[in-house]
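User: Just a sanity check before I run the rest of the batch. Below are the structure tokens for the first item. I only need the designed sequence back.
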């Protein structure tokens, strides 16, 4: 049974949503992924959101661009956390998506990451799950230590070659 549902309105969102999936997979978190348009397939969308809890989801990650109703509608139906990923758009650079997701009415919260923030959405879902899973928390701590090691290695390289040659 999947712990996280990943849903997007279009296959054009896949490169960003894959970043969330990659993080979840790296941390050993089960998930499934679907393309469902809240506007073009309202019945399928409602069935997805209404059945998410019984399918075992603890968190939904929803990506959307332009009108960006998918995350908010998931949050209106699904009783557990929803993380919205606003997608970059050509017309308004993703600000339209960001505002649509972050400006939810009182009582319908959606955690929102940066525009195209797929990796952070995966990490936030993992952190939510880690509140009741100490093994996952240890994996997250190791992941963070790995990030630190990457920065240290980059600085060491810089110091070796000198900033003039970097």
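Assistant: Here's the designed sequence for the first item:
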């Amino acid at each position: 049974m999947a712990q996280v549902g990943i849903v997007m309105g279009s296959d054009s969102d896949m490169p960003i949503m894959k970043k969330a999936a990659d993080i979840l997979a790296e941390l050993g978190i089960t998930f499934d992924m679907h393309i469902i348009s809240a506007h073009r397939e309202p019945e399928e969308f409602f069935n997805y959101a209404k059945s998410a809890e019984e399918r075992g989801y603890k968190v939904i990650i929803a990506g959307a661009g332009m009108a960006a109703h998918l995350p908010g509608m998931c949050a209106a139906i699904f009783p557990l956390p929803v993380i919205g990923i606003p997608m970059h758009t050509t017309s308004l650079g993703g600000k339209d998506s960001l505002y649509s997701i972050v400006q939810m009415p009182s009582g319908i919260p959606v955690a929102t990451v940066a525009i195209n923030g797929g990796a952070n959405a995966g990490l936030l879902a993992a952190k939510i799950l880690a509140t009741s899973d100490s093994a996952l928390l240890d994996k997250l701590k190791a992941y963070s230590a790995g990030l630190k090691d990457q920065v240290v290695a980059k600085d060491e390289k810089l110091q070796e070659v000198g900033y003039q040659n970097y």
